[in-house]
Write a structure and sequence with these properties.
mainly alpha; ATPase_csu/dsu_sf; ATPase_V0-cplx_dsu; ATPase_V0-cplx_csu/dsu; proton-transporting ATPase activity, rotational mechanism; 102 residues
Length: 102
């Protein structure tokens, strides 16, 4: 009987997590990334993936900017999960990578 109400109670969260999982880079994405010669090539390859345009508004690219933007994307996703669920602070912090801007 408890399985009958799973989607009512947990369906939204499961859908969000499935969406995040679908956004993980695939082997073909990694293969394309290894062929990049410049950071602009990397930016183009990431924009074709599910990461979308998170680097598009950056005129100057450095590895630090890419790291900061990717980390901020992960932090925002983790905060969204935390705000929509009843995760404890400890379990939510384990979802977020250690980053100096936190």
């Amino acid at each position: 009987m408890e399985g009958l109400f799973f989607n009512v109670n947990n369906g939204f969260l499961e859908g969000i997590v499935h969406g995040y999982k679908a956004g993980i880079l695939t082997q073909s994405h990694y293969d394309n990334l290894t062929q990049c010669k410049t950071l602009e090539d990397l930016k183009t390859q990431l924009s074709t993936a599910s990461y979308g345009n998170f680097l598009m508004n950056k005129a100057l690219l450095t590895t630090t900017i890419i790291w900061d933007q990717a980390a901020q994307l992960l932090i925002n996703q983790s905060k969204f999960l935390h705000s929509t669920t009843m995760l404890s602070s400890r379990s939510a912090s384990s979802l977020i990578i250690s980053h100096p801007s936190m």
